[in-house]
Amino acid sequence: MKALLLTLPLCLFAAQAAQAACYADYKAKRDDPLRLHYGVAETAAPCDQPEAAAQDLRPRLAADGWQLLAVVSLFGEEGLEKRRDSAGDYFLRY
C-alpha cells in the first residue's frame, strides 16, 4: 500500500507532462499564383514526432488551400513568443 501511495504522484506527474502542449513551426504554399507562408500551430502530436505533427497539420492547412511543405521544428510553450513576429498572421491560425 505504501508503495502505491508513493508511485501514484509520480504517475500523475508523468501523465501531466505527456499532455504538455506541443507546437510546430512549418512552411506551406499555395499555387497559382505561388504564395508561401511560415506559421506556428499547436499540434496534438507528441513533440518528438515530426511526421505525426505533419499528419496533424496537413488537413487543417488543406482546408484553406495550403499545402504543407515542411515541419521546421517542434517545441513547447517556451518557444512561442520568439516565433510570434515571424509567423505574423499565421501565428496559431491553424
TrEMBL record:
Q: Does the keyword Signal apply?
A: yes
- Give the signal peptide as a residue range, or say none if absent: 1-20
Q: Which UniProt keywords apply?
A: Signal
Task: Specify the domain of life of the species encoding this protein.
Answer: Bacteria
**Name by which UniProt lists this protein:** DUF4177 domain-containing protein
